[in-house]
Amino acid sequence: MPEKVEATNAEISGGQATSRRKFMGYIGLAGAGAALVACSPQNPPVVELTPAQQAAKQDLEILNYALVLEYLEAEFYNLFAVGGKYAANLKLDDVKKYAAEIAGHENSHVKVLTDTIVSLKGTPATKPTFDFSPLIGSKPINDELFLALAATFEPIGVRAYLGQVARLTNPALIAAAGAIHAVEADHVSAVQELRVKLGFNKQPNRQTDIAPQSVAKPTSLVAGDFDADYSPTPTAFWKALTMDQVLAIVKPVIK
Amino acid sequence: MTTPTPNRRSFLKFAGAGAGAVMLGGVNMTALAATTVAGKSKQQDIDILNYALLLEFLEEDFYLKFADKGALRGKLSDARVKTYADIIAAHESAHVTALQQTIVSLGGTAITKPKIDFTPLVGDGSKLDDKAFLALAATFEPIGVRAYLGQADKIQNGDVLTAAASILAVEANHASGVQELRRQLGHTPANLQTGIAPQPAGGETIVDTSKFNLDYSPTPTDFWKPLSMETVTMIVGPLLPK
Which Pfam families does the record cross-reference, listed alphabetically (chain A) (predicted)? Predict the structure, then answer.
Protein backbone atom coordinates (compact mmCIF):
# COMPACT_ATOMS: atom_id res chain seq x y z
CA MET A 1 0.00 0.00 0.00
CA PRO A 2 1.23 3.55 -0.68
CA GLU A 3 2.08 5.38 2.53
CA LYS A 4 -0.58 7.95 1.83
CA VAL A 5 -3.32 5.35 1.98
CA GLU A 6 -1.95 3.97 5.23
CA ALA A 7 -2.12 7.41 6.77
CA THR A 8 -5.70 7.87 5.69
CA ASN A 9 -6.66 4.59 7.23
CA ALA A 10 -5.04 5.43 10.53
CA GLU A 11 -7.07 8.60 10.53
CA ILE A 12 -10.30 6.78 9.84
CA SER A 13 -9.51 4.31 12.55
CA GLY A 14 -9.56 7.07 15.12
CA GLY A 15 -5.89 6.87 15.93
CA GLN A 16 -5.73 3.15 16.60
CA ALA A 17 -2.63 1.82 14.96
CA THR A 18 -3.81 0.10 11.85
CA SER A 19 -2.83 -3.50 11.70
CA ARG A 20 -4.08 -4.06 8.22
CA ARG A 21 -0.76 -4.89 6.71
CA LYS A 22 -0.22 -7.70 9.19
CA PHE A 23 -3.84 -8.72 8.95
CA MET A 24 -3.43 -9.22 5.24
CA GLY A 25 -0.27 -11.15 5.88
CA TYR A 26 -1.93 -13.53 8.26
CA ILE A 27 -5.04 -13.99 6.22
CA GLY A 28 -3.00 -14.35 3.06
CA LEU A 29 -1.03 -17.12 4.74
CA ALA A 30 -4.24 -18.70 5.85
CA GLY A 31 -5.59 -18.63 2.32
CA ALA A 32 -8.65 -16.89 3.60
CA GLY A 33 -9.76 -15.10 0.50
CA ALA A 34 -8.89 -13.74 -2.89
CA ALA A 35 -10.46 -10.39 -2.10
CA LEU A 36 -8.09 -9.81 0.75
CA VAL A 37 -5.11 -10.94 -1.24
CA ALA A 38 -6.11 -8.44 -3.88
CA CYS A 39 -5.53 -5.70 -1.31
CA SER A 40 -2.15 -6.99 -0.27
CA PRO A 41 0.98 -4.87 -0.57
CA GLN A 42 2.02 -6.78 -3.68
CA ASN A 43 -1.00 -5.40 -5.53
CA PRO A 44 -1.28 -1.66 -4.82
CA PRO A 45 -4.49 -0.09 -6.09
CA VAL A 46 -4.09 1.70 -9.39
CA VAL A 47 -6.57 4.41 -8.48
CA GLU A 48 -6.32 6.33 -5.21
CA LEU A 49 -9.44 5.92 -3.14
CA THR A 50 -11.65 8.72 -1.95
CA PRO A 51 -12.21 9.03 1.81
CA ALA A 52 -15.64 7.44 1.37
CA GLN A 53 -14.13 4.53 -0.54
CA GLN A 54 -11.45 4.18 2.12
CA ALA A 55 -14.13 4.07 4.80
CA ALA A 56 -16.09 1.43 2.93
CA LYS A 57 -12.91 -0.57 2.42
CA GLN A 58 -12.04 -0.39 6.11
CA ASP A 59 -15.54 -1.60 6.99
CA LEU A 60 -15.18 -4.57 4.66
CA GLU A 61 -11.82 -5.46 6.10
CA ILE A 62 -13.27 -5.47 9.59
CA LEU A 63 -16.24 -7.55 8.47
CA ASN A 64 -13.95 -10.12 6.89
CA TYR A 65 -11.83 -10.20 10.03
CA ALA A 66 -15.00 -10.83 12.05
CA LEU A 67 -16.03 -13.48 9.55
CA VAL A 68 -12.78 -15.40 10.01
CA LEU A 69 -13.27 -15.35 13.79
CA GLU A 70 -16.85 -16.51 13.45
CA TYR A 71 -15.77 -19.28 11.05
CA LEU A 72 -13.41 -20.44 13.77
CA GLU A 73 -16.04 -20.36 16.50
CA ALA A 74 -18.66 -21.98 14.30
CA GLU A 75 -16.34 -24.82 13.35
CA PHE A 76 -15.39 -25.39 16.97
CA TYR A 77 -18.99 -25.58 18.21
CA ASN A 78 -20.17 -27.57 15.21
CA LEU A 79 -17.62 -30.24 16.11
CA PHE A 80 -19.41 -30.71 19.43
CA ALA A 81 -23.00 -30.08 18.36
CA VAL A 82 -25.34 -32.83 17.16
CA GLY A 83 -23.83 -34.44 14.07
CA GLY A 84 -20.37 -33.14 14.86
CA LYS A 85 -17.24 -35.23 15.06
CA TYR A 86 -17.00 -34.87 18.84
CA ALA A 87 -20.72 -34.75 19.67
CA ALA A 88 -20.53 -38.13 21.39
CA ASN A 89 -17.71 -36.88 23.59
CA LEU A 90 -20.12 -34.65 25.48
CA LYS A 91 -22.00 -36.49 28.22
CA LEU A 92 -23.83 -33.81 30.20
CA ASP A 93 -27.16 -32.51 28.92
CA ASP A 94 -26.44 -28.95 30.05
CA VAL A 95 -23.20 -28.96 28.12
CA LYS A 96 -24.81 -30.46 25.01
CA LYS A 97 -27.46 -27.76 25.13
CA TYR A 98 -24.86 -25.03 25.10
CA ALA A 99 -22.95 -26.68 22.28
CA ALA A 100 -26.13 -26.73 20.22
CA GLU A 101 -27.30 -23.22 21.05
CA ILE A 102 -23.94 -21.56 20.62
CA ALA A 103 -23.24 -23.45 17.39
CA GLY A 104 -26.53 -22.08 16.10
CA HIS A 105 -25.52 -18.55 17.01
CA GLU A 106 -22.07 -18.74 15.45
CA ASN A 107 -23.42 -20.28 12.25
CA SER A 108 -25.89 -17.43 12.12
CA HIS A 109 -23.11 -14.88 12.58
CA VAL A 110 -21.18 -16.45 9.71
CA LYS A 111 -24.20 -16.20 7.47
CA VAL A 112 -25.06 -12.62 8.40
CA LEU A 113 -21.50 -11.43 8.00
CA THR A 114 -21.22 -13.18 4.65
CA ASP A 115 -24.49 -11.66 3.46
CA THR A 116 -23.50 -8.24 4.72
CA ILE A 117 -20.15 -8.33 2.95
CA VAL A 118 -21.88 -9.33 -0.28
CA SER A 119 -24.49 -6.60 0.13
CA LEU A 120 -21.68 -4.06 0.48
CA LYS A 121 -20.15 -5.35 -2.78
CA GLY A 122 -17.27 -6.99 -0.99
CA THR A 123 -16.00 -10.54 -1.30
CA PRO A 124 -16.41 -12.69 1.79
CA ALA A 125 -13.27 -14.45 2.97
CA THR A 126 -13.37 -18.16 2.28
CA LYS A 127 -13.43 -20.43 5.27
CA PRO A 128 -9.91 -21.30 6.43
CA THR A 129 -8.96 -24.85 7.35
CA PHE A 130 -8.90 -25.09 11.11
CA ASP A 131 -6.99 -27.53 13.24
CA PHE A 132 -7.68 -27.38 16.96
CA SER A 133 -5.15 -30.03 17.88
CA PRO A 134 -2.61 -27.45 19.15
CA LEU A 135 -5.20 -26.51 21.79
CA ILE A 136 -6.29 -30.03 22.57
CA GLY A 137 -2.87 -31.62 22.82
CA SER A 138 -3.07 -34.90 24.68
CA LYS A 139 -6.03 -33.83 26.80
CA PRO A 140 -9.15 -36.00 26.75
CA ILE A 141 -11.89 -34.53 24.57
CA ASN A 142 -14.80 -34.27 26.99
CA ASP A 143 -17.25 -31.89 28.62
CA GLU A 144 -14.53 -30.24 30.67
CA LEU A 145 -12.25 -29.58 27.71
CA PHE A 146 -15.10 -28.32 25.57
CA LEU A 147 -16.14 -25.80 28.21
CA ALA A 148 -12.58 -24.72 28.87
CA LEU A 149 -12.01 -24.03 25.18
CA ALA A 150 -15.33 -22.18 24.95
CA ALA A 151 -14.30 -20.08 27.96
CA THR A 152 -11.09 -19.32 26.07
CA PHE A 153 -12.58 -18.41 22.68
CA GLU A 154 -15.55 -16.35 23.79
CA PRO A 155 -13.79 -13.55 25.68
CA ILE A 156 -11.40 -13.23 22.74
CA GLY A 157 -14.49 -12.69 20.60
CA VAL A 158 -15.81 -10.06 22.99
CA ARG A 159 -12.52 -8.20 23.01
CA ALA A 160 -11.98 -8.56 19.27
CA TYR A 161 -15.31 -6.90 18.46
CA LEU A 162 -14.61 -4.24 21.07
CA GLY A 163 -11.37 -3.42 19.29
CA GLN A 164 -13.17 -2.74 16.02
CA VAL A 165 -16.49 -1.16 16.91
CA ALA A 166 -15.21 2.42 16.81
CA ARG A 167 -13.30 1.74 13.60
CA LEU A 168 -16.48 0.88 11.73
CA THR A 169 -17.76 3.83 9.76
CA ASN A 170 -21.21 2.62 8.70
CA PRO A 171 -23.71 3.11 11.58
CA ALA A 172 -25.71 0.05 10.54
CA LEU A 173 -22.58 -2.04 10.93
CA ILE A 174 -21.90 -0.56 14.36
CA ALA A 175 -25.35 -1.63 15.50
CA ALA A 176 -24.93 -5.13 14.07
CA ALA A 177 -21.43 -5.56 15.50
CA GLY A 178 -22.69 -4.37 18.87
CA ALA A 179 -25.44 -6.98 18.79
CA ILE A 180 -22.94 -9.76 18.09
CA HIS A 181 -20.45 -8.37 20.60
CA ALA A 182 -23.10 -8.74 23.35
CA VAL A 183 -23.88 -12.28 22.23
CA GLU A 184 -20.25 -13.30 22.65
CA ALA A 185 -20.43 -11.87 26.16
CA ASP A 186 -23.55 -13.97 26.84
CA HIS A 187 -21.66 -17.06 25.77
CA VAL A 188 -18.75 -16.21 28.07
CA SER A 189 -20.88 -15.93 31.16
CA ALA A 190 -23.29 -18.78 30.60
CA VAL A 191 -20.43 -21.17 29.91
CA GLN A 192 -18.42 -19.89 32.84
CA GLU A 193 -21.22 -20.16 35.40
CA LEU A 194 -21.79 -23.73 34.22
CA ARG A 195 -18.08 -24.43 34.69
CA VAL A 196 -18.42 -23.07 38.23
CA LYS A 197 -21.30 -25.41 38.95
CA LEU A 198 -19.45 -28.41 37.57
CA GLY A 199 -16.36 -27.62 39.62
CA PHE A 200 -14.19 -26.96 36.58
CA ASN A 201 -13.53 -23.30 37.41
CA LYS A 202 -11.09 -23.00 40.30
CA GLN A 203 -11.31 -19.19 40.51
CA PRO A 204 -15.03 -18.46 40.18
CA ASN A 205 -14.76 -14.92 41.59
CA ARG A 206 -11.62 -13.77 39.81
CA GLN A 207 -12.04 -10.31 38.30
CA THR A 208 -10.11 -9.54 35.13
CA ASP A 209 -10.62 -7.40 32.05
CA ILE A 210 -8.15 -9.32 29.91
CA ALA A 211 -9.60 -12.84 30.00
CA PRO A 212 -8.52 -15.33 28.84
CA GLN A 213 -5.07 -13.79 29.19
CA SER A 214 -3.57 -14.51 32.58
CA VAL A 215 -2.28 -12.45 35.47
CA ALA A 216 1.11 -14.11 35.20
CA LYS A 217 1.54 -13.38 31.49
CA PRO A 218 -0.94 -10.60 30.72
CA THR A 219 0.45 -9.76 27.28
CA SER A 220 1.02 -13.29 26.06
CA LEU A 221 -0.81 -14.27 22.88
CA VAL A 222 -0.02 -17.96 23.35
CA ALA A 223 -2.99 -20.10 24.34
CA GLY A 224 -0.82 -22.20 26.61
CA ASP A 225 -0.33 -19.16 28.84
CA PHE A 226 -4.06 -18.42 29.14
CA ASP A 227 -6.15 -18.91 32.26
CA ALA A 228 -9.77 -19.83 31.57
CA ASP A 229 -10.71 -19.69 35.26
CA TYR A 230 -12.31 -16.28 35.83
CA SER A 231 -15.61 -15.01 37.17
CA PRO A 232 -18.65 -15.33 34.90
CA THR A 233 -19.06 -11.61 35.53
CA PRO A 234 -15.37 -10.81 35.31
CA THR A 235 -15.12 -7.08 34.81
CA ALA A 236 -16.81 -3.68 34.73
CA PHE A 237 -14.97 -2.82 31.51
CA TRP A 238 -13.51 -5.21 28.99
CA LYS A 239 -10.20 -4.32 27.45
CA ALA A 240 -10.09 -4.42 23.67
CA LEU A 241 -7.78 -6.60 21.59
CA THR A 242 -6.34 -5.32 18.33
CA MET A 243 -6.48 -7.26 15.08
CA ASP A 244 -2.77 -7.96 15.46
CA GLN A 245 -3.24 -9.52 18.85
CA VAL A 246 -6.25 -11.59 17.90
CA LEU A 247 -4.71 -12.89 14.71
CA ALA A 248 -1.57 -13.87 16.57
CA ILE A 249 -3.73 -15.76 19.08
CA VAL A 250 -5.73 -17.68 16.49
CA LYS A 251 -2.93 -18.26 13.99
CA PRO A 252 -1.88 -21.64 15.48
CA VAL A 253 -5.30 -23.15 14.77
CA ILE A 254 -5.43 -21.92 11.15
CA LYS A 255 -3.70 -24.33 8.80
CA MET B 1 -43.09 -11.51 35.83
CA THR B 2 -42.22 -13.59 38.83
CA THR B 3 -41.26 -10.84 41.23
CA PRO B 4 -43.41 -10.41 44.30
CA THR B 5 -46.48 -8.21 44.34
CA PRO B 6 -45.78 -5.92 41.41
CA ASN B 7 -47.81 -2.77 41.75
CA ARG B 8 -49.63 -2.88 38.45
CA ARG B 9 -51.64 0.24 39.11
CA SER B 10 -48.70 2.59 39.41
CA PHE B 11 -47.08 1.06 36.36
CA LEU B 12 -50.14 1.54 34.23
CA LYS B 13 -50.65 5.01 35.58
CA PHE B 14 -47.21 5.97 34.40
CA ALA B 15 -47.60 4.27 31.08
CA GLY B 16 -50.77 6.27 30.52
CA ALA B 17 -49.03 9.57 31.06
CA GLY B 18 -48.31 10.04 27.39
CA ALA B 19 -48.74 13.77 26.87
CA GLY B 20 -46.05 16.33 27.54
CA ALA B 21 -42.35 16.04 28.21
CA VAL B 22 -41.42 13.04 30.31
CA MET B 23 -38.91 14.04 32.95
CA LEU B 24 -36.99 11.32 34.71
CA GLY B 25 -34.41 12.03 37.35
CA GLY B 26 -33.83 15.50 35.96
CA VAL B 27 -33.46 14.22 32.43
CA ASN B 28 -35.88 15.27 29.75
CA MET B 29 -36.49 11.84 28.29
CA THR B 30 -38.75 13.17 25.60
CA ALA B 31 -35.93 15.27 24.22
CA LEU B 32 -33.49 12.41 24.58
CA ALA B 33 -35.75 10.11 22.63
CA ALA B 34 -34.88 12.23 19.60
CA THR B 35 -31.32 10.91 19.37
CA THR B 36 -30.56 9.90 15.82
CA VAL B 37 -27.80 8.49 13.70
CA ALA B 38 -27.88 11.57 11.46
CA GLY B 39 -27.80 13.93 14.43
CA LYS B 40 -24.47 12.81 15.82
CA SER B 41 -22.84 15.55 17.86
CA LYS B 42 -20.95 16.12 21.04
CA GLN B 43 -24.14 17.28 22.71
CA GLN B 44 -25.96 14.13 21.59
CA ASP B 45 -23.09 12.06 23.01
CA ILE B 46 -23.55 13.85 26.35
CA ASP B 47 -27.30 13.21 26.23
CA ILE B 48 -26.72 9.53 25.56
CA LEU B 49 -24.18 9.34 28.36
CA ASN B 50 -26.66 10.93 30.77
CA TYR B 51 -29.30 8.43 29.70
CA ALA B 52 -26.83 5.63 30.34
CA LEU B 53 -25.95 7.22 33.68
CA LEU B 54 -29.60 7.23 34.68
CA LEU B 55 -29.87 3.50 33.96
CA GLU B 56 -26.63 2.78 35.80
CA PHE B 57 -27.82 4.78 38.83
CA LEU B 58 -30.86 2.56 38.84
CA GLU B 59 -28.91 -0.67 38.56
CA GLU B 60 -26.32 0.43 41.10
CA ASP B 61 -29.01 1.36 43.61
CA PHE B 62 -30.68 -2.00 43.15
CA TYR B 63 -27.55 -4.13 43.57
CA LEU B 64 -26.12 -2.07 46.43
CA LYS B 65 -29.26 -2.83 48.42
CA PHE B 66 -28.43 -6.53 48.18
CA ALA B 67 -24.65 -6.25 48.35
CA ASP B 68 -22.57 -6.60 51.48
CA LYS B 69 -23.80 -4.05 54.06
CA GLY B 70 -26.86 -3.28 51.92
CA ALA B 71 -30.27 -2.79 53.52
CA LEU B 72 -31.68 -5.93 51.90
CA ARG B 73 -28.59 -8.14 52.25
CA GLY B 74 -30.38 -10.21 54.86
CA LYS B 75 -32.89 -11.30 52.24
CA LEU B 76 -30.22 -13.33 50.45
CA SER B 77 -29.11 -16.73 51.69
CA ASP B 78 -27.26 -18.58 48.89
CA ALA B 79 -23.53 -17.83 48.90
CA ARG B 80 -23.29 -17.72 45.11
CA VAL B 81 -26.21 -15.30 44.90
CA LYS B 82 -24.54 -13.05 47.45
CA THR B 83 -21.35 -13.11 45.40
CA TYR B 84 -23.28 -12.04 42.32
CA ALA B 85 -24.83 -9.13 44.24
CA ASP B 86 -21.40 -7.99 45.42
CA ILE B 87 -19.64 -8.30 42.07
CA ILE B 88 -22.39 -6.74 39.98
CA ALA B 89 -22.87 -3.88 42.46
CA ALA B 90 -19.18 -3.07 42.09
CA HIS B 91 -19.46 -3.12 38.30
CA GLU B 92 -22.47 -0.81 38.25
CA SER B 93 -20.75 1.60 40.64
CA ALA B 94 -17.74 1.64 38.33
CA HIS B 95 -20.04 2.39 35.40
CA VAL B 96 -21.62 5.31 37.27
CA THR B 97 -18.23 6.81 38.06
CA ALA B 98 -16.88 6.31 34.55
CA LEU B 99 -19.95 7.83 32.93
CA GLN B 100 -19.86 10.85 35.25
CA GLN B 101 -16.21 11.43 34.46
CA THR B 102 -16.74 11.01 30.74
CA ILE B 103 -19.58 13.50 30.70
CA VAL B 104 -17.45 16.05 32.53
CA SER B 105 -14.51 15.42 30.22
CA LEU B 106 -16.74 16.24 27.26
CA GLY B 107 -17.71 19.53 28.88
CA GLY B 108 -21.17 18.35 29.86
CA THR B 109 -23.02 18.23 33.15
CA ALA B 110 -23.78 14.85 34.64
CA ILE B 111 -27.26 14.39 36.03
CA THR B 112 -27.53 13.94 39.76
CA LYS B 113 -28.77 10.64 41.11
CA PRO B 114 -32.55 10.60 40.95
CA LYS B 115 -34.93 9.34 43.59
CA ILE B 116 -35.40 5.65 42.95
CA ASP B 117 -38.32 3.61 44.24
CA PHE B 118 -38.48 -0.12 43.62
CA THR B 119 -41.88 -0.47 45.28
CA PRO B 120 -43.64 -1.02 41.95
CA LEU B 121 -41.54 -4.16 41.51
CA VAL B 122 -41.01 -5.41 45.06
CA GLY B 123 -44.01 -4.17 46.98
CA ASP B 124 -43.19 -3.83 50.67
CA GLY B 125 -40.14 -6.08 50.25
CA SER B 126 -41.44 -8.75 52.59
CA LYS B 127 -41.25 -11.43 49.93
CA LEU B 128 -37.77 -10.66 48.73
CA ASP B 129 -35.37 -13.57 48.66
CA ASP B 130 -32.68 -15.07 46.42
CA LYS B 131 -35.24 -15.96 43.82
CA ALA B 132 -36.83 -12.52 43.71
CA PHE B 133 -33.45 -10.79 43.62
CA LEU B 134 -32.26 -12.90 40.71
CA ALA B 135 -35.53 -12.41 38.86
CA LEU B 136 -35.16 -8.64 39.13
CA ALA B 137 -31.55 -8.87 37.97
CA ALA B 138 -32.70 -11.00 35.04
CA THR B 139 -35.20 -8.25 34.24
CA PHE B 140 -32.84 -5.30 34.41
CA GLU B 141 -29.77 -6.72 32.70
CA PRO B 142 -31.14 -7.53 29.24
CA ILE B 143 -32.85 -4.15 29.25
CA GLY B 144 -29.43 -2.67 29.88
CA VAL B 145 -27.95 -4.65 27.00
CA ARG B 146 -30.65 -3.53 24.62
CA ALA B 147 -30.65 0.08 25.84
CA TYR B 148 -26.93 0.46 25.12
CA LEU B 149 -27.36 -1.30 21.81
CA GLY B 150 -30.07 1.19 20.89
CA GLN B 151 -27.61 4.07 21.20
CA ALA B 152 -24.36 2.61 19.87
CA ASP B 153 -24.85 3.75 16.29
CA LYS B 154 -25.79 7.27 17.43
CA ILE B 155 -22.54 8.00 19.26
CA GLN B 156 -20.08 10.31 17.52
CA ASN B 157 -16.96 10.07 19.67
CA GLY B 158 -14.99 6.87 19.05
CA ASP B 159 -13.72 6.62 22.62
CA VAL B 160 -17.22 7.04 23.97
CA LEU B 161 -18.46 4.37 21.59
CA THR B 162 -15.78 1.92 22.68
CA ALA B 163 -16.53 2.60 26.34
CA ALA B 164 -20.25 2.11 25.72
CA ALA B 165 -19.60 -1.15 23.87
CA SER B 166 -17.45 -2.32 26.75
CA ILE B 167 -20.31 -1.70 29.17
CA LEU B 168 -22.77 -3.30 26.74
CA ALA B 169 -20.80 -6.54 26.94
CA VAL B 170 -20.67 -6.33 30.72
CA GLU B 171 -24.45 -6.07 30.92
CA ALA B 172 -24.64 -9.15 28.71
CA ASN B 173 -22.23 -10.93 31.07
CA HIS B 174 -24.52 -10.10 33.95
CA ALA B 175 -27.64 -11.23 32.11
CA SER B 176 -26.16 -14.60 31.22
CA GLY B 177 -24.36 -15.34 34.45
CA VAL B 178 -27.50 -14.56 36.42
CA GLN B 179 -29.66 -16.58 34.08
CA GLU B 180 -27.40 -19.65 34.22
CA LEU B 181 -27.45 -19.39 38.01
CA ARG B 182 -31.26 -19.13 38.00
CA ARG B 183 -31.37 -22.24 35.83
CA GLN B 184 -29.09 -24.15 38.17
CA LEU B 185 -31.20 -23.13 41.17
CA GLY B 186 -34.35 -24.38 39.45
CA HIS B 187 -35.92 -20.92 39.13
CA THR B 188 -36.42 -21.19 35.39
CA PRO B 189 -36.21 -23.75 32.60
CA ALA B 190 -34.22 -21.06 30.75
CA ASN B 191 -35.07 -22.56 27.40
CA LEU B 192 -36.28 -19.66 25.26
CA GLN B 193 -34.36 -18.31 22.30
CA THR B 194 -35.30 -14.64 22.00
CA GLY B 195 -33.63 -11.41 20.95
CA ILE B 196 -36.03 -9.24 22.95
CA ALA B 197 -35.68 -10.56 26.50
CA PRO B 198 -37.12 -9.80 28.98
CA GLN B 199 -40.05 -8.84 26.79
CA PRO B 200 -42.21 -11.81 25.83
CA ALA B 201 -42.19 -13.29 22.34
CA GLY B 202 -43.76 -10.87 19.89
CA GLY B 203 -44.02 -8.25 22.62
CA GLU B 204 -41.59 -5.58 21.56
CA THR B 205 -44.01 -2.87 22.60
CA ILE B 206 -44.76 -4.36 26.00
CA VAL B 207 -43.43 -2.18 28.81
CA ASP B 208 -45.39 -3.69 31.69
CA THR B 209 -42.83 -5.74 33.60
CA SER B 210 -45.53 -8.03 34.98
CA LYS B 211 -45.90 -9.33 31.43
CA PHE B 212 -42.23 -9.99 30.90
CA ASN B 213 -40.93 -13.52 30.38
CA LEU B 214 -37.83 -14.42 32.37
CA ASP B 215 -37.46 -17.95 30.99
CA TYR B 216 -34.96 -16.97 28.33
CA SER B 217 -31.85 -19.07 27.81
CA PRO B 218 -28.56 -17.83 29.32
CA THR B 219 -27.46 -17.77 25.67
CA PRO B 220 -30.73 -16.38 24.41
CA THR B 221 -30.03 -15.08 20.93
CA ASP B 222 -27.63 -14.71 18.04
CA PHE B 223 -28.55 -11.00 17.73
CA TRP B 224 -29.93 -8.79 20.45
CA LYS B 225 -32.53 -6.33 19.33
CA PRO B 226 -32.04 -2.75 20.46
CA LEU B 227 -34.50 -0.87 22.67
CA SER B 228 -35.30 2.76 21.99
CA MET B 229 -34.98 5.38 24.70
CA GLU B 230 -38.70 5.81 24.53
CA THR B 231 -39.41 2.16 25.34
CA VAL B 232 -36.77 1.99 28.04
CA THR B 233 -38.24 5.11 29.59
CA MET B 234 -41.65 3.50 29.67
CA ILE B 235 -40.23 0.38 31.31
CA VAL B 236 -38.16 2.02 34.04
CA GLY B 237 -40.26 5.15 34.50
CA PRO B 238 -42.33 3.76 37.37
CA LEU B 239 -39.16 3.29 39.40
CA LEU B 240 -38.27 6.96 39.10
CA PRO B 241 -40.92 9.00 40.88
CA LYS B 242 -41.27 12.59 39.76
Answer: Ferritin_2
User: What domains lie within chain B, and their CATH numbers?
Assistant: 8-13+24-190+226-237 (1.20.1260.10)
pLDDT digits (tens, 9 = 90+) for B17-37: 333 455 666 666 655 656 899
Torsion of CA A29, A32, A36, A42, to 10 degrees: 20
Give pLDDT tens digits for A108-118.
999 999 999 99
The CA distance from A63 to A65, in Å, is 5
Residue by residue, DSSP assigns A121-180 as: T--PPPPPPB--HHHHTTS--SHHHHHHHHHHHHHHHHHHHHHHGGG---HHHHHHHHHH
Partner residues linked to B192 by β-bridges: B216
Q: List, in sequence order, every beta strand (DSSP E) within chain B.
A: 23-24, 27-28
Q: Who contacts A110 (Cβ-Cβ below 8 Å, separation ≥6)?
A: A67, A70, A71, A74
Of B18 and A94, the one with more pLDDT? A94
Q: Are B229 and B29 spatial neighbours (Cβ–Cβ below 8 Å)? A: yes
- Tell if the CB–CB gap between A237 and B94 is shorter than 8 Å: yes
Exposed / middle / buried, residue B81 (Cβ in 10 Å: 0-12, 13-18, 19+):
buried
Contact assessment for residue A219 and residue A245, using Cβ atoms and an 8 Å cutoff: no
The structural domains of chain A, with segments of one domain joined by +, span 9-30+49-253
Average pLDDT, whole number, for chain A? 87
For a pLDDT cut of 90, what percent of chain B falls above it?
81
d(CA A49, CA A197): 54
Alpha-helical regions (H) of chain A: 3-12, 20-30, 34-38, 51-80, 93-119, 133-136, 143-164, 171-197, 243-250
What's the CA dihedral at B237, B240, B241, B242 to 10 degrees?
-80
Q: Which residues of chain B lie closer than 8 angstroms to A108, CB-CB?
A: 222-223
> Can you tell me the distance from the alpha carbon of B145 to that of A149, in angstroms, rounded to the nearest whole number?
25
Hey, which residues 89-148 in chain B have their CB within 8 Å of chain A?
A: 90-92, 94-95, 98, 145, 148
Q: What is the CATH number of domain A9-30+49-253?
A: 1.20.1260.10
Q: How far is Cα B150 from Cα B36, in angstroms, rounded to an integer?
A: 10
Question: What distance in Å separates the CA atoms of residue B29 and residue B46, rounded to the nearest whole number?
Answer: 13
Rounded Cα gap, residues A150 and A192, in angstroms:
9
ipTM of predicted complex: 0.89
Q: Answer whether A112 touches B (CB < 8 Å).
A: yes
**A137 in contact with chain B, both atoms CB, cutoff 8 A:** no
